[in-house]
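From: lab user (bench 3)
To: helpdesk
Subject: output format question, protein + fe (ii) ion

Hello, I'm new to running complex predictions and I'm not sure whether the block I got back is the full result or only part of it. Here's what I submitted:
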Amino acid sequence: MASKRPTIRPLNGRSFGVLLEFDDGAPDTAIDDFIASADLIRRAIADAAGVMVVKGLEAISQAPDELVRISRIFGPEVENYHETLTGARFFHDEIPEVLVLSNLPPCSFPPPLRPEPPVTADGRLPVQFPHQRNWHTDQSYRRPPPDITLLYGVTTPPADQGQTLFADCTAAFAALDPQLQNRLKGLNGIHAPSWVGRTPDDVRAGNPPKPLLPHQLPQRHPLVRYHPDTGRPALYICEEKQMDFVDGPIEGLETGPDGEGARLLRLLLEHATSRQFVYVHEWSPGDLVIGDNRCLLHAATWYDADTHPRLMWRTTVMGNPGEQYRGEAKSWISTEGLAANLGMEDA
Ligand SMILES: [Fe+2]
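Helpdesk reply: Thanks, we reran it on our side. This is the complete output you should expect:
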C-alpha cells in the first residue's frame, strides 16, 4: 500500500515550530507513513527553527522500539544508554535507547520545583527565566553534544501542568543588538552537569567541586552555534544547573555566580525565554515532540506529582553537530571503560 503524506502546518499562534497530523488518523500505518516522509519532515523541522509536534502516534505506547525506529530518521546514531553514563533507573529495561522520565518507581524522578511566583497574573505557569527555571539544551556538558531529542508522552498530567517549553534561540539571537551579537560570536560557554559541584549554589556554599576524571570534565561550546543544515546562528546556552560557575560560566569573563559571565548569561536567558520566543507544549498521551538541541532551549514546568503519574520516553540522536566538532571522540566515554564512570550515575 502506498504511504500517505501527513499534513504539516505551523503551530497555532507561534512564529516557529510545526504540527504534523495524519489526515485519516490511520493508527495502523502512522509510524510507517511518518518514516516514509523523512525528507519532508527533516526539512519542515529545519524551516521551523527546530520544533515539531506529532499527533497520531499512539501506537508507540505499546511498542517503545518504534520510537527508536522513528528516531533513526534524524541521524546516524541513537544514543544507547547502556553504553554511556546513565543510571539504570533512567532507561527502559528492554530498549536501551529509550530514557525513562517518570515520577513512578523505579525511576522516581521528581518534578521541577513549583516556580516562584507560582503563577503569572493570568493564572498560568510562568515561562520566562528566572521565574521558570531549568532552561537547558540536552547533554551540553558533552562534546559533541546531541543533535535532536524526541520526547514521547505515555502518561501525562493535566495540560496546564508538566508542560514542555521550547525557546527559539535562532530568533532570539537575531533580535539582539548587532554589537552584542558580534561580542557573543567570540565567546565560549563552559557547560557542566549539576552533580559535579559547579552550580551557583555549590559555589556560594563553598562546596569544593568534585574531583573529575578527564571524561567527566566541563566542556566548552560557542555561545553562538551555526546550524549545520541551515547555516543560521543561534544562541547556545543553559542556565545554572548545566553551566560551570567555578571556571565560567563564560570563558574569559569574570567567573562565579555573580561575576560578569553570570550577568551576561542571565541577560541572554531572560531575553531568549521571553514569551515571543517560547512555545508551550501542553501534553496529551500519545504526543511526540521533536526538538533540535542545536538551536533551542527547553524546560519542563511543575506538576503535582503526588496526584498525577507522568511517564515520558526520550531518545537522543547525534551525528551532525557541525564543522567545529568534526572528527572528535566522544568526550564522555572513558578509554578506561564503563568502570571509570563511577560517581556519574545520575547523568
Ligand atoms: Fe532536557
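A quick orientation on your result: Residues 136, 138, 298 surround fe (ii) ion (CB under 6 Å). Let us know if anything else is unclear.
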